[in-house]
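Instructor's aside before we start: the two examples that follow are unrelated to each other. I chose them only because their records fit on one page, so don't look for a connection. First example below.
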Amino acid sequence: MPTVAITSFVRRQTAQSQFSHWTISDEDLIGRVVNNIEKAHPGYREGVILVPVEPEGFFSADAVLKSGDTLMGEFVPRREGEEPRKSIFVVGDKSQAKTVWVVLYAHNVLIERNENETDCDYEIISINASPTVDSVPPPMPPETLIANHFGMSGGTATNMNDSEFVKSLRDSVMFWKDKAHVRPKS
């Protein structure tokens, strides 16, 4: 069985954040990942996988936008030491997830930029919970793909050539054009 750890980066995904979050224990989260790792889908590059897990105890911070929705934004670093990034969100309520994809980066991917926190085989980088039933993982948001591909602060190299990047960016834009992260009401 591969070893899996939870990173400090994914801890930003709280009930108060604009990201999906979970209410189950760390042990339950890791157990669900390990028990489903054979169902993993390949990520945007070798060494990145997305593992589907049971959605109970997960809340989605993604929303399908409706005409007239007001979007808000901010320009802040994702974590200390990174340059600020633009983030756009819609104010609203998170919903019970119907599908959850746990994003894992392999140890060798994380050590490329000295971002590993453990010696585990994989580290959990993101919990992507969806308000819809999805049979395949949705593409990463365009802003994340761009930051990764162009080596921006906090990005992880995609190792894509130009045509692979354009195809991935097209898929991302088409999926995310009418969606946004939810910023919970205060």
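Example two begins here.
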Amino acid sequence: MRRRMVLLTGGVAALVAALVTGGTAVSEAAVTVQGPVAGGAPYIYPATAGRDPVPVMQQTGVRAFTLAFILARTRTECTPTWEGQPLTSAAHRNRINAIRGAGGDVVVSFGGWSGNKLGNACANPTALAGAYQQVIDAYRLKVIDIDLEAGEVSQSRKVLQALQITKRRNPAVQTIMTLGTGQRGLEGDEAGIPGQAVALGAPNPVDVWTIMPFNFGGNGKDMGQLSVQASEGLHQQLKTAYRTMTDAQIYAMQGISSMNNRTDVGENVTVAHFRTMLRYCTDKRLARFTFWELNRDPTLAFTKVIGEFRG
């Protein structure tokens, strides 16, 4: 699996405190969507930590952010929280309002590497879909991201069934599945997940299949080309699963979520590698090109590349 660790820049604690104590709490009704979610939406983790995203939008062209992560309250309690903080946290609501007030929008991500996963805590697909729905309703979301990692991968069928229920209830809400990958596409338990999705029938539970091409043995290699190779491997796997779709339709269901600078296993992902990925994502018209994560990019060099992608 692709562990994504947090390397926060200095001053985070002060910024978090300012968000919590200095922000103006607003009512749930005040959270409104003001524009489409752009294809490039860098992760922010924790969702209210680090630099102010509004100036980042102005400096980089990025129009959206992926806020991470939504988890279960406890290992057995099917209640969505911001990693232990209430779903209706004022700090999270204020951050979303600020991004939308500046003309952007957010994707909310569920899961990740650590913590109590809703896919494990919720007893069945209906309960899990209910947890997703609480978050969609709380923030009037257009897009959700399921970052399926670690112990939650074994719950893939339940997660897909829950996403299908979610699509029936919210046909306009886009669903993203983010998975770890090998150098030539999905491996192990992840490799069978697209087939599981297709077997469920309509509506298709996943709109965008995104891979995380890092922490996969790329040390000393060109991580840009290796990421393209992994994406092409995913493409072939999706063609096998979605047999009636054209190449263009399948590329439009794909995404790349990279990691900038040094990865957890020592791979080096450079701005030049990001540009290789950007050219590929633009040429093939992929749906998503993002990275982990904003606070790991103090000069915004990587974020500016993401800002050029429109999906």
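The first strand starts at residue 43 and ends at 44.
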